[in-house]
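Hi R.,

Here's the chain you asked about this morning:
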Amino acid sequence: MLPVNCGSHADYQNLVVENLRKYYPNPDLLARSTWDIIERFWHLDLSDTDTLLTHKYSKFGPAPRTPSCMQRSYLLSIDFKVSSITEWAAQLKMNPLFAILSGFQVGDTPGVGTFYDFMKRLWDSDEPHMTSHIHPLKAKVKKPDAKGEKAASVEKVTVAELLPQLEKTAFPLNDQPYASLFKIYQKEFLDVSVEKGLIHKDSLALAGDGTPVVTSHRERKKRICKCKENGINDCSCDRYFSQPDCDIGWDSSRDCFYHGYDLYMLVDSQSDLPVFPHYSYASKHDSHGFLQAFFRMRAFLPDYKVSKVLLDSAHDAMPYYQYFKRQNITPFIDLNGKGGRPPVYKNDFTIDKDGVPVCPSGHRMRRDGIEVAKGRMKFKCPKISHTGGCISCTCDKPCSKAKYGRTVHLILNDNPRLFNNPPRSSKEWKLEYNARTSAERSNKREKLDFKLEDGRHRSTKMWYCRLYHILMLQHLDAWDLPSESPLRKLILNAA
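And the predicted structure, written out as tokens:
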């Protein structure tokens, strides 16, 4: 049978008021932190969930639980730090507040199986994983030489090969198993944050970063070949993996190997709010993780215009700069020191680590503006003095007899990686790049505040369900509440 809606969002609010009057007539007895959650959920309209999931239910059989109530209840479990669905189903029966806020009548709450059935309806695939259980052994990630460093890439495809491949790839949203999850997230949370002015989709400054997500203590795999029986212990035959979308990666922050996913997050750098997530293998390098997330985001959110990207040195590859230039996107990417610099520029100048020309005497040149029409940056001699109104060069070994000293023009097309606009030496670049940590802050909230890794799931389906609902809560927390609580007044003014 099609889901029976309890009514509109107003009907849900009335149900909450009616039951709070009955079970919690004095709002002051509830903790301030609890009351904040009550307020936010009372204002949260999830009625679109019922519409978006209608086709997932049969027209026959017993009446199901209202999808919006199931979703609201799952969101509440994460907000109240209950990571086990089994435990949450038990809490709903014991704690009237949890049942009321979910939209259920006290004493009539769903069981564990109903929650898992709801998660199944959020996933648009019969398979709970993205890939097959059976696949070849992968190259092992090597421990970095220095503490705090990220592991080197084990990818067989270079960024230069992958980028044009993904650029030409169509990513139809409806072909993705998480399509329903994304549509609910976009409709009820991401778009609302845009409407509230928290995210400016016409000029989006995207910060990107990958973070490890531990799903189990070890990798579980087994042989399906007969090689061991034949005395071959180190064969390279395919294996059966219990979590086929996960593998072993290196966690640079915790300085250890781990089994799970690499979660790559694209975040609005102005608001610290998540825009788009993507799970990859734990061994996936950030330079590849960004591309996989970025091109999917552009396909799923075609109205979002990216104006800037803020990335760390793991993304410092020439194809990035060339692509962003074609797309009129300004890159703010830190140099990793391994990409190299031209040994000589303009015959006798070298280029410093941040793209500033260094004169033959070893002095960093002084920036003197950008000539946009000619596509070049201008640098002047730093040793020119104007003391006493007299212009003179104070260098011991002047390289020019010109009155204002030597001038160097950096042609941006010569090396878009090094000759960045704005230059990395400028205050503008440093100020913008500092906002890159928004991605790190967002990842921290997901893992520490909302306990992402506390989920004890074996399937990518469940990990995506948990992740997307955490992103929803991040947006919900950012929305301002009314200065005066209408809910409190309604409870206290009971007839």
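The mean pLDDT is 90.

Let me know if you need anything else.
M.
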